[in-house]
Amino acid sequence: MRDALGAPQSVLVLGATSEIAQATLRRLAGERMRSARLAVRRPDAVEAFAGELRGRGVAVEVLPFDADDVESHPLFVEAALAGEQDVDLVLVAFGVLGEQSESERDHMAAVSVLRTNFLGAASVMTVIARRLVAQGHGTIAVLSSVAGERVRRSNYVYGASKAGLDGFAHGLGLALEGTGAGVLVVRPGFVRTKMTAGMDAPPYSTTPDRVAEAIVEGLARGAHTVWAPRGMRLVMSVVRHLPRALFSRIPA
Ligand SMILES: NC(=O)c1ccc[n+]([C@@H]2O[C@H](COP(=O)([O-])OP(=O)(O)OC[C@H]3O[C@@H](n4cnc5c(N)ncnc54)[C@H](OP(=O)(O)O)[C@@H]3O)[C@@H](O)[C@H]2O)c1
Question: Is the pLDDT of residue 53 over 90?
Answer without folding.
Answer: yes
